[in-house]
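tool_call: predict_structure(chain=1)
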Amino acid sequence: MFLRRIALLALPAALVAATGCSSLYSISISPGAGVVSVSVGQTAQYKAYGVKVMGTGTPTTDDITNSVQWSVTNPSIASISSTGVATALAAGHTTIYATSGGTTASSDITVAAPGSSGAGSGTPYINITPGTATETFLGETTQFIATGSLTGGASQSLAGQVQWSSSNVQVATITSGGLATAVGAGTTTITAQSGGTLATATLTVTISGTNTNASLNLIPSGASASFVGETTQFIALGNLNGTGVTQDLTSSVSWSSSDVSVATVDKNGLVTAIGAVTGVGTTTITATGSTPSGSLITATATLSLGAAPGTVILPTLAAYMTGSGTGTITGCVLTGGATTCSQNVINCGTGSNPSCTASFPLNSVVTLFANTTGHFGGWSSNCITLTGPPPNPLACTVQLNNNKAVGAIFNP
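tool_result:
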């Protein structure tokens, strides 16, 4: 049940120069050989994926199911449509081909007669292919396929019948159709589930060509509170695995305050001004993370308290650009059903400006937008990514019930 992973190979320079356009290098079919076993009359969805290269750019993997030519070696056993849907016609076995130009990939299908042992055991089950996969660059995708039977019958495609999830969205995200995208180094568990029936696969992301030093930074590096009870959100960014790819580590590190009579900090980096003695003072906020080797790495920031009566009327939103990539952040309070900012109150990234601030009325909901030609690593966890409709991972919202800091991660 293992789907062979697509090899990402560079085209010869001479060929790229000669074509001057994106070239199809290889094709893969999912589900792979030995996966699909159905009974007469059932169908199975096959997908074709092609690796393409444009010049010296990064190889990309695309769904080319509807642009390849599908065929079977024995059409009396199963037929296949132009969209990759195979229909079982008679008991037996046949090979399935996907062809584009001179490039071909194959899989197969086994058809069991109605009522035979191949029809299933009566126990619902799910299988995922591939069972393990590795991605080597940010933005690389892997298509996971769920097959099986939710009624215990013969195995068939479960597309649209399972819910997909990634245990670590800082490593990879996955769509409702099972397409996983690498966003950071590490390992995540991919799960396909329907009710109480589930199956898992492992996806490992290894980023080559980056540094080997763990990193940890806090934003903001310094903040002030003007009254007792005021809160300030600190965010931890960096990479504990030493891959150089910036990630939001706010919920993965431990937090402490050097003087809890001035301010306390919770497990999510939210600092609350206490000022129990004099109402003034300074404390050091420390975030501590652990590397895979067991070494500790720390980062610090300061909070100064100068207590005064009253509450925040115009809380401040501070947006920070982090990571080694480039881009911009814009933001505003959307009104009247707008989906984009007509006037950008937040505007970071112009020139050499990596951060910016703006004040908004208390409890305003601010929408932030990221723009980059590289890979966007995501927002800090306190800014909620827009899930749609339509979904937009480049946008997020944050409510200013107090002063807030938001980080946007830009990777090359």
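agent: The first strand starts at residue 23 and ends at 30. Proceeding to next step.
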